[in-house]
Amino acid sequence: MGNSILFEIQEEVNLVAEAIKSVLSLEVIIYDKNKVVVTATGGGTHAVVGEPVRGHIIAEVLKTNQPVYNFEPGFHDVCKSCILHQNCPEKSDVSYPLTHEGEIVGVISLTAFSEKQKNEFKEKHRILSNYLGKMADLISSKINGTSLLKKYLSTSQMLQVTIQSMYEGIIAVDQKGYILEMNRSAEKILNIKKHNVLTLNISEVIQNLPITKVFSTGQGYTDKECSLIVNGKMIQVIISANPLIHNSQIIGCAITLKDLAEVQKFAYSITSEVDDSTFDIIVGKSPAILQTKAEAKKVAATDSTVIFLGESGTGKELFARALHQESKRVNKPFRAINCAAIPEHLLESELFGYSEGAFTGARKSGKPGKFEMAQGGTIFLDEIGDMPLHLQVKLLRVLEERKIERIGSNNSIDIDIRVVAATHKNLEKMVADGEFRQDLFFRLSVIPLHIPPLRERDGDILVLLQHFVQHYDKITGKKVRGFTPDAENRLCSYNWPGNIRELQNAVEYAINMATDHWIRVENLPPRIREQNHLKADKETITLAEMEERMIMGALKRYSDTLNGKKQAADELGINVATLYRKINKYELNRKMQL
Q1: CA 299/CA 568 separation, integer angstroms
Q2: Which pLDDT score, from 0 to 100, does residue 133 have?
Q3: How far apart are alpha carbons 161 and 154 in whole angstroms?
Q4: Of 137, 144, 210, 506, which residue is most buried, by most CB within 10 angstroms?
Q5: Res. 432 pLDDT band, cuts 50 70 90
Q6: 144-148, 333-337, 483-487, 552-556 — which is least confidently predicted?
Q7: Is the pLDDT of residue 154 over 70?
Q8: What is the residue-averaged pLDDT of the chain?
Q9: How confident is the model at residue 534 (pLDDT cuts 50, 70, 90)?
Q10: Long-range contacts of 545-548, Cβ-Cβ distance < 8 Å, separation of 24 or more
């Protein structure tokens, strides 16, 4: 029974049937599409509600979707297969199909059980048929109403489930700002409970919520960064607001909220490459590098501030990334900023961000800085020794209070990050010279870790050479196996002032220059070939000869043009005037033309 749509409106069907009987004095029986009786005005004399009937005539109506007029029950062609053939208690009947959305869902029948009813039935069967058709339409309209209500309720339930499961917080208010609805995400973001704020005006619950213009202009907005105050606490969110309009009238507003920290974390997760920079990928077996790795591993699990000290190219950022990867913050952002690479007037906004209208050209929504973007994770301040003094003061405050303020804003934002710094400069000397704040130096130097230069890493040059050969061989596909003994000796005796970075670049250069499976001396970068050549002959040449050769080599590398001479002078560590004097002294213009 439960599967029949007529049983869902059984009460209405009963009322229709009783109304028909009161007018026509005929028994009314309504069947569903399975020939089960839905209602019968005869009190069960000829049909029992909820039970199926043989119903040959009913089956015919269901099959053809056409009404059947039976003035001689038991003698109709359809009745031939019935066990009551020629012996039917009914005197006359008409059966009419009930349809819903183009499909037959049942049958309504009028039945006469007396000769008087039968005669009246014959005289008025057309009128009765027309009346029955209207009653069928009435029942169909009841079905439609019930179906629409069910669809509405179903849609409403689905909408509720959808709203409650959405990642964004959603709040609906009426045209006066009173809260009508709020989903679980909004409760979580704002740290409030729906049952405590429903029917309250949203201005009583949330301060600084920008929706007044939405009501006055009918214009919404999307993804506006905002600082809201809820229960006295500031919350950073991304807001969108759109008016709800009916019959050209604003009847409310729909507000969506996204937690700014969560948005930043999501953005980081889809824009950042997979980082596998653990300590295990730091190549080297020398005691010096192994000791530094061991010390760094010890402090990785803590939140203490670390500063990496070492020459340029020793791998300070690689160590910082490894420190992050092996810390409890591994699933949070790692943000790096080179304090020497960004112009001084831009560095502050890069670090701390800025609010809307902070300066000419500032984005309308403002912009978070690296500290905000590293929320929960690690910020790496590379070349900290190049940070201007006025920013050192602001950084010191961040380290002490764990709060930041964007440029142009008076609101403080709590941050939970680990600070890791690095420099190739002598900070102690800078402190003595007044170039670096002493209090900041002590704050950063909680755990100082020295990364040794390549020249102090005994045996690591060969290991690194082979490592980078394999790396660039895969990239270039040149099938290079390694270095000839002579080339290897030249590389091992080189001083490597640029450390790992210089060695890596040298290997890439050599692989590109190689013509077979082995890298030879002539494939090495010129500076390495020439410096090693001078070292090999240093006992048989004078200081003047060495100087002449170095100048000659620099001029060949950079050409004899004015710009070339400037570059050569920079490499040699002398000014251009001195270079011209040396060129004349050694008659290099004439010798280079030979």
Answers
A1: 44
A2: 72
A3: 11
A4: 506
A5: very high
A6: 144-148
A7: no
A8: 81
A9: very low
A10: 547/582, 547/586, 548/586, 548/588
71-77: long-range contacts, CB 8 A cutoff, minimum separation 24 = 71/118, 71/121, 71/122, 71/125
User: How is the chain split among helix, strand and coil, in percent rounded to 5?
Assistant: 50, 20, 30
Structure tokens at 84: 């009551």
> In the sheet that 418-423 helps form, which strands lie side by side, from edge to edge?
334-338, 378-382, 418-423, 306-309, 447-450
Number of other CB atoms surrounding residue 562 within 10 Å: 8
- Could you tell me which residue, 292 or 479, shows the higher pLDDT? 292
Q: Coil, strand or helix: which one is 191? A: coil
Q: Residue 89: which of 63, 112, 58, 123 has the closest Cα?
A: 112
DSSP 290-357: HHHHHHHHHHHTS---EEEE--TTS-HHHHHHHHHHTSTTTTS-EEEEETTTS-HHHHHHHHH-B-TT
**Statement: residue 57 has pLDDT above 60:** yes
> pTM higher than 0.70 for the full model?
no
Q: Report the distance separating Cα 354 and Cα 368, nearest Å.
A: 7
Q: Which residue has the tokens 């930043």?
A: 264
Pairing of strands 249-259, 233-246: antiparallel
Q: Where are the strands (E) in 372-479, listed by range? A: 378-382, 403-405, 412-414, 418-423, 447-450
Where on the phi/psi map is residue 190: left (φ > 0), alpha (ψ -120 to 50), or beta? alpha
Task: Find, among 23, 46, 44, the residue nearest to 132 by Cα.
Answer: 23
Instruction: Note the pLDDT of residue 545.
Output: 75
Q: Which residues contact residue 529 at a Cβ distance below 8 angstroms, ignoring those fewer than 6 apart?
A: 490, 521, 522
